[in-house]
Design brief:
The protein starts with a helix and ends with a helix. It is built from 4 helices and no strands. Helices cover about 80% and strands about 0% of the residues. The longest helix is centred in the N-terminal third of the chain and has 24 residues, at about 15-40. It has one domain (about 1-90). The chain has about 90 residues and is mostly helical.
């Protein structure tokens, strides 16, 4: 676990914390807009989705990018969206 903390510290040295937090906030606002549109179509119930659930999609994408340092392949995007995120928000809804 200390290795992970060290990696995160090095990452945050390269990226100003304010920029990271801003990007995270924009990601959350974007996801909430997407989820509200899905709720309007009857696909999910926003009142059952926690902030952590709403941020999960982008968190998983950032995780993949951070640990592989490679472009995210389409298969990984499909898996993250279809097999993890949509399953989670639809089950809660």
């Amino acid at each position: 676990m200390s290795t992970l903390h060290g990696l995160m510290a090095e990452y945050l040295d390269d990226v100003p914390v304010s920029a990271y937090l801003y990007i995270r906030q924009v990601s959350m606002e974007t996801m909430m807009t997407i989820l509200k549109r899905a709720a309007a179509r009857g696909e999910v119930r926003v009142d059952h989705i926690t902030p952590r659930m709403a941020s999960l999609l982008m968190d998983l994408v950032r995780h993949e990018l951070f640990f592989t340092n490679l472009e995210l392949p389409e298969e990984a995007i499909v898996e993250i969206v279809d097999d993890i995120f949509l399953l989670l928000v639809r089950l809660r809804g």
